[in-house]
Amino acid sequence: MRKRKHLAWMAALILLVITLVSPLIPMSVVSAADSKNLIYDEANLLNEQEKSELNALANEYGAERQTDFVILTTNNTENQDVELLTEDFYDEHALGYDKAHGNAVILTMDMYNREVYLAGFYKAEDYLDNGRLQSIRSRITSEFSNGDYKLAFEKYIKLSYKYMGYEPGVNPNNILFNGWFQLVVSVVIGGVVVGIMTYRSGGRVTVNRATYEDSSTSSVIDRQDRYIRTTVTKRKIEKNNNNGGGGGGGGGTSRGGHSHSGSRGSF
Amino acid sequence: MPVIEYKCPNCGSGMLFDSATGALSCPSCGRQDNIEQIPDPLKKQVFTENEVKEYHCNSCGADIVTEPETSATTCSFCGAAVVLSDRLTGDLAPAMVLPFSISKDEAQQAFKKWCRNGLLTPSGFMTADRVKSITGIYVPFWLYELHNKIEVHGRGTKIRTYTQGDYHYTETQHFDIYRRIRLNYVNLPIDASEKMKDELMDKLEPFPYNQLKLFKTPYLAGYIAEKYSYTDEELYPRAKEKTSSYIDSYIASTVSGYNSVSYTDKQIDTTLKNADYVLLPVWMVYYDYNRSQYTFAMNGQTGKVVGKPPISKAKVAGWFAGISAVSLLSLKLVSWMMGGGFL
């Protein structure tokens, strides 16, 4: 009996550990010395402290995913296209975590046209395809519109990090991947199973409708299934438009020959 | 003399019903009498109509103290098995009896085994070492034969969906449904004892009716028996209520192939063909645990145990946590295999 009790405690402990520890695991320590600058705030949207905080965050998460999470803000005085601007910036600065012109995600803020562009290169092109970049962009656009840049950048880094944890091709927003959803479902399963066990502990009815039926004299004597009419309703199929809110775009190839995924939109 | 006892013709000891052999047996000299062949002393007796108030034990002469519904018991002074015959004759004569096939020792063993299998019961309860008493009771039941004539009218729909061009079509075919059914139930048991809880007795079913014997009083020797507290007419509504869910599911089984069915008219004409008064064997187990008493009932033929055992909060919590943890782990595993990362 003692053994069973121990098992129960162990199980409870496992549940607790999984729930509490899982969000903390990605926090690996990156020393300040080998952090590189990933924040190019040419439009001066951030103060020094915000910049260094974001840089630390980008370095820390980037190391986990072997990818540089880059932020570029520009006043775009030459009025260049934001996608072109991003590609040129990548070519010029030779960005990349693993090598020059390597894995990188770039968030470009064009303050002149109030446009935002997200691009993923190499590993990030696979893991952050157009759809995922679109999803990231749609989640941070409202912060941009409100001028809440620091928060938006933070969300961009965290979401990019999170999405790169999913294999390419799966939907990262699948509810099955949501930790809270998983927890709620498991607790519901546990509750239902234990509820049934409790209910059935007092014995259950093991007779059914056939037990006392006298099948030799019971039968359907007469049956009719008469067709009356047919009704038809029709509904127009909605064509869903992915690029709501002035968004759109996609990937391309930079002048330096580096292919990338992308998503653009205004804010 | 309304009290019947069974004296061994060889040695004069009190004879008892033996569940293993199904015979009236003498514990002293081992004599076994086939109950179906010996004449029932009940048949030879004639009673006056007015109810007897006092019974005296034939062996020791003591007053037999019983509750008004008891029809068989043991003398509380000398332990002799006695049958109060005026409570088993006339309207109160059972048609059939289902004898015990499980002895008291076997019942005790079976109950202990059942307790050990309780997944949520406290450990202290599972040892079953505080069984206060275990009593074999012949519980009065009515076995109903009900004939139903059923007429049902309803509407059914069959739904087909398809896409054509820019439109999504839902095509619904409507049908008029009619069924006329003859549905008969036999040997539907309803417990007729006031003391026995209905939900406990309902769960004891099914009883193996092929073991039913024509009623003879020696089957009761050594057990407690009760006479019915309710007549078959009084319990008829309960019998109908018990079959109503059976009838509904029978009707549903005759209406298939539809996406939805709604009944506009359902007429069930039930006639009570017959109701047999029978005595069915039940072991009642009284168990003291943690200063409260728990009552269990065991089918005296099949050994099925029913009754609410105490529930251990710790074990409920343990199972809950365990099942939740396993579910969470498997969900994590599924999401990992789908490429979603483990955490």
Notes on the structure:
The complex is a heterodimer of chains A (267) and B (343). With 267 residues, chain A is an alpha/beta fold. Chain A has a domain at 28-176 and 247-266: Roll (Diaminopimelate Epimerase, Chain A, domain 1). In chain A, 40% of the residues lie in helices and 19% in strands. Chain A has helices at 2-21, 48-65, 82-93, 123-127, 130-145, 149-163, 179-200; strands at 39-41, 68-74, 104-110, 115-121, 219-236, 252-253, 259-266. In chain A, strands 1-2-3-4-7-6 form a six-stranded mixed β-sheet, sandwiched between helices. Chain A is elongated, with a radius of gyration of 28 Å. Chain B has 343 residues and is an alpha+beta fold. Chain B has a domain at 312-343. Helices cover 21% and strands 37% of the residues of chain B. Chain B is built from five helices and 14 strands. Chain B has helices at residues 104-116, 123-126, 198-204, 232-254, 313-337, and strands at residues 3-5, 16-18, 23-25, 32-33, 70-74, 81-84, 96-97, 131-164, 167-191, 213-214, 224-226, 260-289, 292-299, 305-306. In chain B, a hairpin with a 5-residue loop joins strand 13 and strand 14. The longest helix of chain B is centred in the C-terminal third of the chain and has 25 residues, at 313-337. Chain B starts with a strand and ends in a 6-residue tail after the last helix. The model of chain B has no long low-confidence stretch (mean pLDDT 88). At the A-B interface, helix 1, helix 7 and strand 5 of A face strand 9, helix 4, strand 14 and helix 5 of B.
What key phrases describe this protein's structure?
heterodimer; A: 267 residues; alpha/beta; Diaminopimelate Epimerase, Chain A, domain 1; 6-stranded mixed beta sheet; B: 343 residues; alpha+beta; 11-stranded mixed beta sheet; 3-stranded antiparallel beta sheet
Short description:
The complex is a heterodimer of chains A (267) and B (343). In chain A, 40% of the residues lie in helices and 19% in strands.
